UniProtKB/TrEMBL annotation:
<protein>
    <recommendedName>
        <fullName>Sulfatase N-terminal domain-containing protein</fullName>
    </recommendedName>
</protein>
<dbReference type="InterPro" id="IPR000917">
    <property type="entry name" value="Sulfatase_N"/>
</dbReference>
<feature type="transmembrane region" description="Helical">
    <location>
        <begin position="63"/>
        <end position="83"/>
    </location>
</feature>
<keyword id="KW-1133">Transmembrane helix</keyword>
<dbReference type="GO" id="GO:0005886">
    <property type="term" value="C:plasma membrane"/>
</dbReference>
<feature type="domain" description="Sulfatase N-terminal">
    <location>
        <begin position="145"/>
        <end position="439"/>
    </location>
</feature>
<keyword id="KW-1003">Cell membrane</keyword>
<dbReference type="Pfam" id="PF00884">
    <property type="entry name" value="Sulfatase"/>
</dbReference>
<dbReference type="InterPro" id="IPR050448">
    <property type="entry name" value="OpgB/LTA_synthase_biosynth"/>
</dbReference>
<dbReference type="InterPro" id="IPR017850">
    <property type="entry name" value="Alkaline_phosphatase_core_sf"/>
</dbReference>
<keyword id="KW-0812">Transmembrane</keyword>
<keyword id="KW-0472">Membrane</keyword>
Amino acid sequence: MSADRLFRSLPPARAALLAVLVLLLWSVVGTSWFLRTYLGPVTPDQVLFHLQNGGLDYADPRMLWRACRCLMAVLALTGASLWLLRRMRRWHGRALLAVLGMGAVVSVQATVSDPCEPEPDGGDYLARHYVDPRDVGAQPPAAKPDVLVVFVESLDEAYTRPRAPGAALLPQLTRLQDEFQTLGELHNLSGASWTVGGMFSALCGVPLQPVGLMSHNSLEYSRRFFQGGQCLTDLMASAGWDISFYGGASLKFAGKGRFLQDHQVARRFGAEEWRRRGVAVPSEGWGLLDSELLAQAWADMQRPRQGDAPRMSLLLTVDTHGPNGAHDVSCLPGDDVDEDDEPADIMREALRCTDHVVAQLVQRFLAQRDGRPKVVWVQGDHLNPEPLLDAELQPQPRGRTVFHALVRVDAKGHPLPVDDQQRNFTHVDILPTLAEAIGWRWQREPHRLGLGVSLLAQPASATLAEQDGMATLNARLSCRSPLFQRLWMGVS
């Protein structure tokens, strides 16, 4: 009877292969579960980009510990499955393997979705619409403003609309948004659905794609970051702006530091840089939390200027990072902070903290009376894949969108007129919009840069989201683009 056992009847080499197969299947199930639980549904681009650019050892240690626990569970389930296979009849064992295989397939399908749908003629959608900033002859303004751009981690527009009016999650940013200018609905493209992707798409006008991962040139690709493309920071640096980046997380995570360095952000601060300055960075979490991060950023922004150079300051917060935000005990004095709070309580606290310190930074920046015009742009870097407080927010019949607000003031501190409008746009439209808000002008392809259209243009031009619809736009831009790969490598 024992000869009828599937595992025992196999030669040693095949039994070893079977053990590897079982481990692989459970690894697929475990990895998919981990991604779905802690990051929400993901795209192949998101997974491949992080594999290519690395830096996972600089992620939140709590997430790494969760990953270790998931790995231990995978090993335990593999051991249990092999124990069962040694005792099962042949057809029972095959049925167990079939169930494991189907479970792996279902788990991947529930976790990873690829929206790519090529154009009917097989053409390169990105190349068809891309306007290279290097080719338009952009001219900077005569009066160069100081610029503040804040990317707030995973900030949904819906956080400004709680179901209960008295349960405001972002009271100060909601008020600032009412005072400033919003431009309609900022939709999240697939290639802008993670932090570096959201920042890159907004500053460079194209969604981020992984390139060269499976090719013999993969190492060469990974050492470059859009080398042949030009981003807003390149334009600004070439015209004399002094550009700084302030982030709480490590610059080594997911290629962020290389992106900033390759696109002329001269001064870059992440977790390691803050430690070298003597700032106490928490050992757990993603890095320096928002209360201290924005205090340090503001202090650095008060440094003496080099000559009369205008400044551009980029910030990226961390407190509201998924899956449930972070305790920031020094943020709101008097708050009842309990380390054992439920995840929803922690996220509410994180939102209140980030709301307070970001609004305070913006107000301080605008309150400077130094005779310089100023431009402020605040936005979520991307949507949180799994909105923890979704049940507390008003329904969004047309889908979730990203928080954003724009304000421009003249040299005397007077806000410039705003044109209230309701547009449908994506991260790629931010590049030309911010360029025009800062005062850049260009004659060739007016109001267009990258794949975007300036939302300040009069008369208005249709964005790609308005022209083709979000479903088609996302499907086309999720496909591999030969032009993007040439721009990445700096090949004309």
